[in-house]
User: What shape does this take?
Amino acid sequence: MTTIELFHLRRVRDKPRATALLAAHAGLTAEAALAAVHQAVGGGKPQITVADEDAARRLIAALAGTGFIARRAAGDFDAAQHAGHALATVLPRCAPGAADAAGAALLAGDWAEALALALQHLQMHRPADDADRVLLEHAAIDTGLVRGVPGRV
Assistant: This one.
């Protein structure tokens, strides 16, 4: 079981679609899903439990398109450590300029910026099934850096 939390809202959000996604992906009743959406809109950080990490990533990515941004819940998950581990694995195989920029951000303590820079580089220069790209995409989803635009899939 993996727990995610809704932690940030974009100005425009699609509450009915977010409710439907929570019900479908997390097995919540319509009432429980709506309650979680209302809690998030009210400033709370509702936690939702799903079957596993893959299910959590699918739900987080799907919610991004509704204006509800989610990430893996803190508990036993440390976003900075998770991102740092992924970056340490991938940066030695990145182009020197990209690795230097991401490494500088990481050294400055900005793991989110480092992850975003490295991921952007890999998305432009590596195929979708590249192991390094997939690793950083998973880290971005897990840490809540995937942020969609409501109305766009």
Notes: Confidence is low (pLDDT under 50) at residues 149-153.
